[in-house]
Write a structure and sequence with these properties.
Shape: globular
Strand content: under 5%
Helix content: over 70%
Largest sheet: none
Order of helices and strands: HHHH
């Protein structure tokens, strides 16, 4: 049970990051369907991976809000 409790903060962080990525895609007017189809989803998977490892949250939120 303790392990499950440890996973929730990480899951919430990943969820918030995913929401920010999609907000940024909307802000940049990215065609999400076309983007996901690029190289059979590989481009989207690479972008998600980069987004999850990015440490520029403040800059990202500022860009989304502008």
């Amino acid at each position: 049970m303790g392990r499950r409790c440890m996973e929730w903060p990480l899951l919430r962080a990943v969820e918030r990051q995913a929401i920010r990525m999609h907000q940024m895609m909307d802000r940049l007017e990215v065609d999400a369907v076309a983007f996901v189809r690029l190289r059979k989803g590989e481009v989207y998977a690479e972008a998600r991976s980069r987004c999850l490892s990015c440490n520029q949250t403040d800059a990202c939120l500022e860009a989304i809000d502008s």
